[in-house]
Specification:
This protein is α+β, with helices and mostly antiparallel strands and 179 residues long. It has two domains: 95 residues, Topoisomerase I, Chain A, domain 4 (Orthogonal Bundle); 71 residues, Gyrase A, domain 2. It has a four-stranded antiparallel sheet. β5 and β6 form a beta hairpin. α1 packs antiparallel against α4, α1 packs parallel to α5 and α4 runs antiparallel to α5. The longest helix is centred in the C-terminal third of the chain and has 39 residues. It is elongated. The protein starts with a helix and ends with a helix. The model has no long low-confidence stretch (mean pLDDT 85).
Length: 179
């Protein structure tokens, strides 16, 4: 049960990471976690401002405190996302340029790397779970048959969540490559 919870969390992390990969349309998840130096500490943009999508390829960041607008703009520029924020009135407008084919291929590679990191995390969960089973076996109280059944169940879970990550990758790749 504990292994399955960890695998579910791993899948959710991969999905969240994928949301941060650009697909040509504007997404608040792309910038919401950028750290901004304000009030003498580091804060995420989502903690400092509202982020809206007025058009499919545009974001609008509206700070709750206007004194932080320059710091937010500077943080977005420093994030190296290839975006150019522009201060307009009481907010920052970010336009997303159309993606070139080579940039799309680059984003697919990033997506595949994130997916592989997720699969590695799943294998770590499997390994840790199998080690716990071995410890339980040596400590006694758990029979051979129960251990075998549990090992097969852990492998089934690993295969299931690895397959889910594979389908997430295929969907994200299709989304990225769609012009």
């Amino acid at each position: 049960m504990e292994a399955e919870e960890k695998m579910i969390k791993t899948e959710q992390v991969v999905m969240h990471e994928f949301a941060g990969v650009r697909t040509g349309k504007a997404s608040a998840t792309l910038i919401e976690n950028i750290l901004v130096e304000v009030y003498g500490s580091q804060m995420r943009i989502r903690e400092l401002a509202g982020i809206t999508t007025p058009e499919p390829r545009q974001l609008f960041v509206q700070p709750w405190d206007m004194t932080s607008i320059q710091a937010i703009e500077k943080a977005i520029q420093k994030a190296n996302l290839g975006l150019s924020p522009a201060v307009q009135g009481k907010g920052i407008r970010i336009s997303f340029p159309e993606l070139s084919q080579e940039r799309r291929v680059e984003f697919v590679k990033i997506t595949k790397k994130l997916a592989e990191d997720g699969r590695v995390a799943l294998r770590h969960v499997r390994r840790d779970s199998l080690e716990l089973l071995k410890k339980a076996k040596t400590a006694g109280g758990v029979g051979e048959e129960e251990i075998e059944v549990a090992e097969k169940e852990i492998q089934k879970l690993t295969d299931l969540y690895s397959g889910k990550i594979d389908s997430l990758v295929m969907n994200k790749e299709k989304e990225i490559m769609t012009v």
